[in-house]
Amino acid sequence: xxxxxxxxxxxxxxxxxxxxxxxxxxxxxxxxxxxxxxxxxxxxxxxxxxxxxxxxxxxxxxxxxxxxxxxxxxxxxxxxxxxxxxxxxxxxxxxxxxxxxxxxxx
Length: 106
Description:
Blueprint: H1 21-34, H2 37-51, H3 53-60, H4 64-70, H5 79-88, H6 100-105
Helix pairs in contact: 1-2, 3-4
């Protein structure tokens, strides 16, 4: 039998479970559907860590420390930073009609 002193629990990190572009897309789309902006921005930090901050810093032209600060749970990244991170990840931000019927009448 395992005693409590034998148990070791490590912190769960989403970045450890993001393995490919499909994981990234599913993660982001799922969070967009939830509509929680803070969680979405935190997820960008998870994704950035899974890709490697040094690599993203080089590709975005933003310092590694700047990325860590902007994509931290308490960060407040600019649209430009978010756009650059998406581009470095090989992703685009797009607008699609939420209700195609309403889009036709606009």
